[in-house]
Amino acid sequence: MNQINAVILDWAGTTVDFGSFAPTQIFVEAFKRTFDIDISLAEARVPMGLGKWQHIEALGNLPAIDARWQQQLGRSMSHQDIDRLYQAFMPLQIVKVVDFADPIEGVPQVIAALRAQGIKIGSCSGYPRAVMEVLAPAAAQRGYAPDHWVATDDLAVGGRPGPWMALQNVIMLGIDAVAHCVKVDDAVPGISEGINAGMWSIGLALSGNEFGATWEEYQQMSGAEIERRRKLAADKLYAAGAHYVIDTLAQLPGVIAEINQRLASGERP
What we know:
- By secondary structure, the chain is an alpha/beta fold.
- It has helices at residues 22-35, 41-45, 52-61, 63-73, 79-96, 107-116, 129-141, 164-173, 188-196, 215-220, 223-239, 252-264, and strands at residues 6-9, 120-123, 181-185, 200-204, 244-246.
- Helix content is 51%, strand content 8%.
- Strand 3, helix 9 (188-196) and strand 4 form a beta-alpha-beta unit.
- Helix 1 (22-35) crosses helix 5 (79-96) and helix 3 (52-61) crosses helix 5 (79-96).
- InterPro entries: HAD-like_hydrolase_sf (IPR050155), HAD-like_sf (IPR036412), HAD-SF_hydro_IA (IPR006439), HAD_sf (IPR023214), PGP-like_dom2 (IPR023198), Phosphonoacetald_hydro (IPR006323).
- It comes from Serratia grimesii.
- One of its GO terms (molecular function) is magnesium ion binding.
């Protein structure tokens, strides 16, 4: 049928880990432990959505971090430095990720509603397989389990912003057309992934990386601050090419209904 029959979801900041804190905090810790270099949570968020090795590389290319690196080590970050940071990051992330496996509020209910419509649930992540093999069962125990997941190092061609993880979900779920898929993500590389795969791409402005607050911080935030952060996040996600931007996954069924109407009238992403 000419309607959405699969959604492909990111993990941290989209379905689990409100605010996407598990990876950002570990990057800060890995930089400090390995090279005694301080980076902020805001800096750690900048390349979010990339594979973690590529994320570290991108952090090293940020002018402020490069300046600190030059001051500390007398040179810019090398591939060997990235390897050392990645090797420090991985065990820390594997241990900590289970602490961030709770589904974001409303996610289990949305997944159930989508499945009741016959929609399949795919997923992919900037996490490598070693992390996903810990996170996925922990999330399943707490109420969220997609039909399939792909890790950033599963495919030889690479991860985001390329389309390959999203397209691997299409293959494994047996989806008939990429135009019948929705990709949902809270970070720019994930939006690009969906666009590059030929899918409808939906950004999340409130639950994820761009908003950058814990659930508790969000609950205590003023309306003005929420709106300020929401607008900044939405502007960034729309600039990346998102067809829609919503607050959290809880609003996804309504957007899918609208997309189904557009598909029925002959529109494509």
